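Hey, resending since the last one bounced:
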Amino acid sequence: MRSQSAYVAPVRFDDPAPALAQVRLIYEQSVTHLRESLQAFVAGGASGAAAAAESAVASGATRVRSCYPFVRVHTDTVARADSRLSYGFVAGPGTYETTLTRPDLFGNYYLEQFRLLLKNHHVMLEVGTSTQPIPVHFSLAEHDHIEGSLSLERRLLMRDLFDLPDLAAMDDGIANGTYEPGPGVAQPLSLFTAPRVDYSLHRLRHYTGTAPEHFQNFVLFTNYQFYIDEFVRLGHELMADVDLIEDGYSAFVEPGNVVTRRSGHGAVPGDELGVAPPRLPQMPAYHLVRPDGSGITMVNIGVGPANAKTITDHIAVLRPHAWIMLGHCAGLRNTQQLGDYVLAHGYVREDHVLDEDLPLWVPIPALAEVQVALEAAVAEITQLKGYELKRIMRTGTVASTDNRNWELLPQRTPERRFSQSRAIALDMESATIAANGFRFRVPYGTLLCVSDKPLHGEIKLPGMANHFYRARVDQHLRIGIRAMELLHEQGVDQLHSRKLRSFAEVAFQ
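The structure tokens again:
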């Protein structure tokens, strides 16, 4: 006996809206079946699907199961509409498909990907129920918590009744370029399978303290709380401003899903559920929200490349349009002054956390669109240009290390490497964020601020550091925000770069 949600046979569509509606129908049927079965199981399993499943397990049969929806396209030609595109088309003749999840969250994204496939290939979209099970944990609503109320015996039985997350179904082989489909298996349409997306959505809640729904398409990363404090101040300042509304920001969201709406805008159902956490999560996120998702998210990733990789691994499934690192660095050139800016155009990767996923021989190129926006933002905020702008901002290579105490190494060793690489600054996170942007096809950039010069005897001392941070943070943050606004204003079609495409790139952005 098997308790399985209704199978929906594949249906073909030539319009993206009905195709998305079919995805919603299949997904909602699937998660509703899992939720109802799980509720019956938690209540004791005396009736309903869970009771039938428990009886089935006792007799050696199978489990409660629901599967993700999928979308598939087939094309017999390499022809497509526009070779200048960076996404929205398949690589060549064949069959391509992917599983889909959370159409409530990704509806607009899916609609755009469907539209581009139809436009560029003039083929039908096929939508149906896949064979990929939905892990029961991924069916839970935002505020559902069930396992804590179960005994150990019931939790063990749950494993026999329901599908749990399967790590084999959610690795990064597609993004890494190592995935090779077997004979008769369709090529991938997306970098991420539905289980991989769901896994990261749950991780984002854990690490950032905010729901995925609040994340915006332009993301700033920092490694200092000073930047977050200033971002929070600016966020609340904007929310209190009833006159300046052309910026489009409508809400500010903090950890615990605490929502502050713009003055004059009423609360939205669900706002009342936000509660400030008793302690901040590991990498707290803050969101300056636009209704269309084109606002700015800022995350304090803390110190080190491991955190930088962890958070970008998960934010990548949201398919942001750009992410930029704003942080402090060690200046490596004698001509640099404390407070100078460093615009990275290359990276020395000694962070080691991505060596297995992205070999060191892979170059991480600068992206012109992001570089131009960052330089323009520096000029606009500082009101400097030409030689005066060059005096405070230097473009060059940034080295990232996993050794926070690199200064204690025998100095001839790191100094020689920095000189050979032409590095002008060193930090612990920038190369990781850029490399993961390259790996996940998310446009990236880095603008750092020199906070010490260890090779030249200028090390961080508490009093000097606090004065420096407070004096420079406001300007640096405003530059980062302005750069994101410039990228938003120029349009995402110009932002996404063909530099990030592989030989056989997936169609979904």
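The domain at 3-203 is CATH 3.30.1730.10 (amp nucleosidase, domain 1).

Sorry for the duplicate.
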